[in-house]
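Interim report, section 4.2 (structural modelling).
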Amino acid sequence: MSSRKKVLLKVIILGDSGVGKTSLMNQYVNKKFSTSYKATIGADFLTKEVTTLLATRPPPVLTAQAHLSFASLKQLWDTAGQERFQSLGVAFYRGADCCVLVYDVNTPKSFETLDSWRDEFLIQASPRDPESFPFVVLGNKVDVGDDRRAISTKRAMTYCQSRSGIPYFEVSAKDNTNVEQAFEVVARNALAMEEQEEYGGGFEDPIDISLDNERDGCAC
Amino acid sequence: MDRKKPPSAFRLSLQGLPYDQTVPDRPPIPITTRSAEPTAEQYKTYGIAQPTYMSARSGLDQEKGPRCDSGLAATSVRDSAITVHTEDHSAGSIRSALSVPQILLDNQAISVPPPHRSERAWLDVKQTNSIPSPSTTIDRPFQGLTLDISTGDLVDDFQPERIEFSKRGSMLFGGRKVTEPAKPVNGLLQPGFGSRRVKSNPSLRKRPAAKVLSTDEELLSHKVRSYYESGTDCANGWDQDSFLGQQMSRQWQDTCASLEGTSVKTSISDVRSDPSTADQTPESRRERTIEKEELELAGGLEYWRDIQNGDVDRYGFIMPRSSTVDAVNSGAMKRSRSSREPPALQRVSTSLQLAADAPRRKLAMRRSPSNANSVQSAIPGQMSIRQPKIRITRPRSSQSSYQGSLSGGSSRLRQATNRLPHNRDRRFMDEAGDMLTLPYGLGDIAENGESEAREVHVRRKEVERDEKWRKMAKVVSKTPDGGGTRFEFDTHSPKLIERTWKGIPDRWRATAWHAFLSASAKKRKESLSDEELIAIFHEHQSDSSPDDVQIDIDVPRTISSHIMFRRRYRGGQRLLFRVLHAMSLHYPNTGYVQGMAALAATLLAYYDEENAFVMLVRLWDLRGLDRLYMSGFEGLMEALDDFEKKWLKGGEIAAKLTELGIPPTAYGTRWYLTLFNYSIPFPAQLRVWDVFMLLGDSDSGSAPNVSVQPSPFGTTLDVLHATSAALIDGTRNILLDSDFENAMKVLTSWVPIQDEDLFMRVAKAEWKMHRRKA
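Predicted structure of the assembly:
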């Protein structure tokens, strides 16, 4: 581990109020779930060290690179869900390597606002290449049950496909369903992004990665 | 006006558009007014072919048969084309969503206020809107008319691949779960159904003109408020598209019907003219609709159903039971410790936790210079356990410009001179890190079983202080019926200020806070009296707020560990909702903003709903919170800028944070917006509030030279700045050794302050130092 170069990945988590951004982040980082996290004010910050990131499942695009076994420290920025806190977002969004969009599969509105979160992020973070910036969409609270479910898997997949193939996962922060897998893809795509930035975009189109991920993405 | 659109065009307008086309081709129509259900006459007027189901339905209305939907019953009486509403708006909004064709207008002048709002009431609305919100689009020219026809058969038309989305503000298929085939007609009551909310400029994200709600918002607001009125979301899952939809909507309508019976009708028109009914109406309505449970009338006894007396601290927070230490110790220890323990949900940075867990007497050993250099490399994220113990030789105030590393010798000299009386403040700041640990001796007591004696001592002390405060308080008025006594304090008295820094005895806290804010209010002519504000509070309860849904999301998660706030839609949650609802309407340009809930919940621990509202309004008007919460957070930015430039600047912490690239916006937002409710234990938060309530008045007499460095806030926020500085002092040793990640984690963490006396002494020292600088 000492020989590995440390890479910092900055991941922003966005989505409507109450969809479970804080819960997801804490489930992923601390392996804990609580039903009563307070509303996030401003932004919250957690880190997670991901060491075996590339060793387990190297995405094809990156295999050619020499530094496969990077340990990477993932910074996770949890944000406030209420719209008007977005004016504070600029400071947090900049330099992000991946953006996680979360919605609640039982709340239609939270799905419908995904686009506005995505647009807002692209405006404020102004990444060099907005078209290829990696997003991951997470449909949270799948544990609640089918009778209350409002957004079907198909609909969400259709949406993600239409946005140049954003990887999509259905997760439950409560049951820890798919959380690890989802964030692994987040980390991988973020790393790809970071690499791309570092080498001035000499990489292949990251859409390849996304498509690849989509296959192992949603098996639900 | 584009009234002559043939119906087929409407159908076309419902087709999905590819995402790319939505922006250039269809500029968002700026505003959605309260949409009204067009009557048959309106259809004629507009030359629109009336949908067939509509005439069928009005026929149904005339039958006047037994119907579950009371809201529809009156539709047939309407006879004029424009002033169609003869009922109160609650029924109106339900009906319009149920029934369907919706006209969205972007020109406010076209929207006709429902006549049930008396002329005066409408004027009121207009007056309160006198400050135009920046995104208000009232004066934009009319750009189009969208009819949104929702019929049963539409459901069949939807194909998943035809669903398209555009940016927020031009949603084409908002809110509907149209893909679900088995949707009952009553599913129309779903949230999000009804009019599409259209905004003029999605990127601005400002509020639409206050109190002009879309049907959607109106409907949702009614739904949410009915939950809190009845104390339950009786139609559990009402908002879900479940197969129970039909039944549930009937339940909902029943609730509405019973609401409608008398109270709502009177409340809309009469309440405004007669304040006395305003006080009674909500009460009587509640009596009617809430299903009382056993014990519910016994003053909150039901809160205690599964809780024992000893499990709750003096402030009402339920203590975590797991700790074996607590079980062994007697009540005093429990009480002194419990509220200091971070609530289970608070994220505490590892470094802070380690510092807090280290007993203070061991910190004394840090003085050995031999230790000072022993720990060189801090692995980020894995702070050595020893670090907090060793690094105390650092300086000092967050404002101190003292630089450079200290040798053991000079720090010992500094420590020695700190003991001189005139260096007392410096000593507090030097030892600020100790605020994270229990005060001297308290750890010993826990082990030696001296807690009984300690408890007696603490109690005696508190009685003494109660007495001192009683002597300072001046009785202003007594209500004859035992309604309570009002007190006043001489807010300029140095003795009072001194004692407030030491903490207001809890028994006096509510009285003193109220008196402090009232004293500020009296100085300003425009301030409303308690009675006026309380009347406003009750008036707001019958209006809809666009923020009700957001408030409803936040209410249950605001203060869930407090005994009063555990029951969904009841008790404290209901009060919290009502207070926030009123706040969102009282400050329409700000509306409800997350963070307000934490403030309201703290106040509800000391006041009833009416006075909690009064206190909040005064905090807003007299303590600068209106500015802090201002839309776009410009005020907050100014405050954080002040903190950085006038409090931190020049200190080594400022240098460190600049080096790491951490601006105050990254950590200060929650400190200021929640007045530290999110970041420090409740007892410490109360101590900060004690001083803020007293000294937060911008023309406070204790301010020697206010006008030296003009800031939009004046000296109002000085107490908050001093508290922030104290928090940074308390964590400085950790911060100075941190990399970006760890510093961020510490700064956004819950700070487990155990010695709030020391914490406040540091804050006071910072405050005094700033005054001297200014």
